Amino acid sequence: MGIRRFHTRRQWHNTLIMAWVTPFLLLMGVILLAAAGLFWPLLVIGAGCVVGLLVAISRDLVNRCVYTVEEDRLVLEHGRERLEIRLADIADASLLDRAAAREYIRSRTRAGDPSKARERIRAFLGYCTVDIGLTSFTLGLGRGIIDRLPEAKHDLVLLRVRDQREFLLSPMYNQDLISAVTRFATSNLRRPGDQL
User: Fold this and answer.
1) Is the pLDDT at 142 greater than 80, yes or no?
2) Which residues contact 157 (CB under 8 A, 6 or more apart)?
3) pTM, whole model, 2 decimals?
């Protein structure tokens, strides 16, 4: 098996939600201006929309990650961070949607030590570029709509390692990454010359 490199997907959902909401908010400000002659609500709404758009764009412009499947290891890279996992140590890799990923990490952090919950979430999401709605910067507006979008279904990969570490990955070609990672495990289940 040769080296395969997978890049992460970039989503613009927060920006799109703000782009959809902004005209309605500005319309409310214009109506207040026309009806009551109040100009300050339009300024406040306009400033809020600009700040909201900037926050949404900054959330959607996260750093990209690269996942490289080599002969016997998976290399996860995010900026200067680099993590190598032996393919033999991977317990499984499966598709997951955003709502399930949110609930999964919440249930895992509730069951563990509360003082390590933040650290566990950071490790879980360290190599994922898709906003699943766990951070305090997430725009909660439209989260349900984003979760139901066709391209949001099963766009993440849950990678579990035998030493109990878990990572959420967001490759552009998720099924190909799962196949590349699990191919090593299935090829090592039965080597040539093994007795049945």
Assistant:
1) no
2) 93, 94, 95, 96, 168, 169, 170, 171, 174, 177, 178
3) 0.68
